[in-house]
Amino acid sequence: MLAQAEADRGNREKAFEHLENGVRDTPQGGVPTRFLHLRGVLKANAGEPVDAETTELAQYRLPDDNPDRTEDKAIAHLNGLYALKQGNVKNAITELRNAVDQYGYEYGVYSIDLARALFANGKRNDAVAMIEKARSSNESLLSGEVRLDLLWHRHRAGHVQAEFLESMGRDRQAKEILDSIH
Description:
Layout: H1 2-8, H2 12-24, H3 33-45, H4 51-58, H5 70-85, H6 89-101, H7 110-120, H8 124-136, H9 151-167, H10 171-181
């Protein structure tokens, strides 16, 4: 949470420091997926390759016979974000759909980024429908518990949805969404 807060404030160096501490301080037998994923998100959004994060995340994959694909989801999400940032929309859609469709824990609402890729590919109605669903998503796939850690992501989904609607000339709807989240 501290790393995300620092990143939101524009203090990338401090965010990376918190993330490195999180990876280093992960208890024996634990997995640093949350920290590696956020580090990769920050890098992908800056247009930087995420190979180091995806390689490290792959080390924590569960055996193939385990249905929990959390690390695979995180890897696909990072690859999709990076592809989207590089303008490779078709690859981004493939990777992000893979991230959304697999079973496992999500360290964000991955469907927001899939909606962004669909929108960039001209599939506007599909993107708007997906972002509406992302805004209302409040359940953990694995536990069914309310995910308070995703509040920021659902708030972000509202901004993305408003951007979509504005670019489609639906300014009144965009304003209503922004008014509802502020």
